[in-house]
Amino acid sequence: MFRDVFNLKSLVLPAAIFIVLLILPPIIPRFYTYILAVIFVTALVAMSLNMVVGHGGLFQFHHGVFYGVGAYTLALMLTKTSLPIWVGFVASPIIAALVGLLIGAFCVRLTRLYFGMLQISLGSLIWAIAFRWYSVTGGSDGIHGIPMPSFIGSSTSSYYFILVVVAICLMILFVIFKSPFGATLQAIRDNPDRCEAIGINVRRHQLIAIVIATFFAGIAGVLFVVVEGSVFPDLLFWVFSLEIFIMCLLGGWFTFAGPILGAAIMISLRTFVGIYTEYWTLILGVILILLIFFLPEGVWGYILEKFSSQSKEEIEKGSK
Amino acid sequence: MLRVEEIHKSFDDFKAVNGANLTVEKGELVAVIGPNGAGKTTLFNLITGQLKADQGKVIFNEEDISNLPPYKICKRGIGRSFQIANIFPRLTVFRNVQVSVFSQQGKSGKLFYPAEKLALEETNSILENVGLLDKAENTAGSLAHGDQRALEVAIALGNKPELLILDEPTAGMSPEETTATIELIKRLADSRELTILFCEHDMEVVFNAAQSIMVMHQGLTIIQGEPDEVRNSSQVQECYLGGAEPC
């Protein structure tokens, strides 16, 4: 199946990036290794969100919840039970997907903004549980010092672990994006009523997309615990959900790889502009305004557009 | 094949369809005519499930399909096009039709197989039928109006319907385009062995093409019959043609 989707030409750029990322850690300072790992994790959440927002047209405003649920599930299993760690790694995304199924089943009954509003409210309930249930979740303090096995204990080894897991996840997401399921999902985004009329069970299709997306958000949550060793309720707060939503818009929500770029830009801004001023969101605001005016398709969308119109011109020149 | 019995639908106080009857036999080309606001589109929406009837029945192949959701009605073998071009604007022309073929073949849920290797033959043959093959890789939203209407029909054909319902297939078209579209419809009916139900307000088109005509006025069925019978009905002339000479 992978051989059918990936042709050699389309693999060159991702493979080159992957190899560069593989050889980076010994060269760059440890802090940058850590930042890169955070970017990978955040990129995965953004990519999972984009599957429902950009390709599915669903206003999943509170996607951070599933990221948080994945992270909390792993954190609780590692601190409160003595189950082996791989059980936690497998169970956390599944729990996230189950919560996704539960919330999604209510939300897909509504459309557009109403979907988004219900999604925010139900998601906020989960946040309230994490925030208030002090005896289990540690309330606003969260859970810290989560023990990690030695193979992902150091910052370099966790970097490699995250890099490989995220790369695999992105490949799977790409296969889904290119599949009939993905094609139908994009058709539903463009015109749900027409889809109903050609025999597609729109609600069920959307719900499956939500479950898949929340599963991958859960994996990202697991990776967050690996990189940070702690969890806190802000992971499930709507502000973070808004940030990942912006990442999708920033990178280009109708493209496949855009959210990765969006995540990289956001994390870099927060880290490097955040050093000089705590009002780094001010700069983000300016960037967003410029984006809406000049790059409505997002940064990656703009690059792709330039690239494809250029190659079209070349073809036309060639034919003359 | 299709029977609509005494169907009613009102929006608040307005009775859009107020007792419509319609019979479509297998292999026929049936037209529904009536002035603007007669309830033609509402009737079609009731048949294909976009709207739920207040009263009355829709029987398709001896099965009561009233009040089923649209996607189930489609699975029973009724495909339809819409009056306004109802396409997938961001997808390519090819993908527009392919998605419909996926649905018909039960492949919409396939997760781990590249879409670009599936349903190619069927999709290409439909595009060829409606004359859009050379525009297959264009973005659907960038097509000219006439081409979007043709694509609209192509999407409906992707479902391999037994009965194809076309809601004003020639709306907004020039006389030449209208003729071409009607030719296309006739050709499709022959080559794909389709039963076609369509509505139209261009009288000439209807009387030339259809084997059976149903006339609607103010939500009510006035008559259904062969073109000559309808043309000569005094009731029709009074209601619809306003007493003027029949065309």
Short structural description:
Chain A is mainly α. Chain A has helices at 2-5, 8-23, 30-53, 64-80, 85-107, 112-132, 134-137, 155-178, 180-190, 192-197, 202-228, 238-251, 258-273, 280-294, 298-319.
What order do the strands of the largest sheet of chain B run in, or round the barrel if closed? 6-7-8-3-9-10
Secondary-structure-derived class of chain B: alpha/beta
* Share of residues in helices of chain A: over 70%
* H-E order of chain B: EEEHEEHEHHHEHEHEEHH
* Pattern of helices and strands of chain A: HHHHHHHHHHHHHHH
Largest interface: A-B, 30 and 40 residues
Counting copies of identical and different chains, the oligomeric state is heterodimer
Our Rg estimate of chain A from Cα atoms comes to 20 Å
How many helical elements of chain B? 9
What is the residue-mean pLDDT of chain B, rounded to a whole number?
A: 84
**What is the CATH-assigned architecture of the domain at 2-77 and 161-239 in chain B?**
3-Layer(aba) Sandwich
Mean of all residue-level pLDDT scores of chain A: 87
Number of strands of chain B: 10
Explain how this protein is built:
- The complex is a heterodimer of chains A (320) and B (247).
- Chain A has one domain (2-237).
- Chain A is globular and about 50 Å long.
- With 320 residues, chain A is mainly alpha-helical.
- Chain A starts with a helix and ends with a helix.
- Chain A has helices at residues 2-5, 8-23, 30-53, 64-80, 85-107, 112-132, 134-137, 155-178, 180-190, 192-197, 202-228, 238-251, 258-273, 280-294, 298-319.
- Chain A contains 15 helices and no strands.
- Chain A is 76% helix and 0% strand.
- Chain B is of the alpha/beta class and 247 residues long.
- Chain B has a domain at 2-77 and 161-239: Rossmann fold (3-Layer(aba) Sandwich), CATH 3.40.50.
- The two termini of chain B are 30 Å apart.
- Chain B is built from 9 helices and 10 strands.
- Chain B has helices spanning 40-47, 70-76, 93-104, 120-130, 145-157, 175-191, 203-209, 227-232, 234-239, and strands at residues 2-11, 14-24, 29-33, 55-60, 63-64, 78-81, 163-167, 195-200, 212-217, 220-225.
- In chain B, the strands form 2 sheets. Chain B has a 6-stranded mixed β-sheet with strand order 6-7-8-3-9-10, with helices on both faces. In chain B, strands 2-1-4-5 form a 4-stranded antiparallel β-sheet, covered by helices on one side.
- The radius of gyration of chain B is 18 Å and the shape is globular.
- Chain A binds chain B through residues 1, 4-5, 175-176, 178-184, 186-187, 189-191, 193-202, 205, 208, 254, and chain B through 48, 50, 69-71, 74-75, 79-80, 82, 86-91, 95-96, 98-100, 102-104, 107-118, 155-156, 158-159.
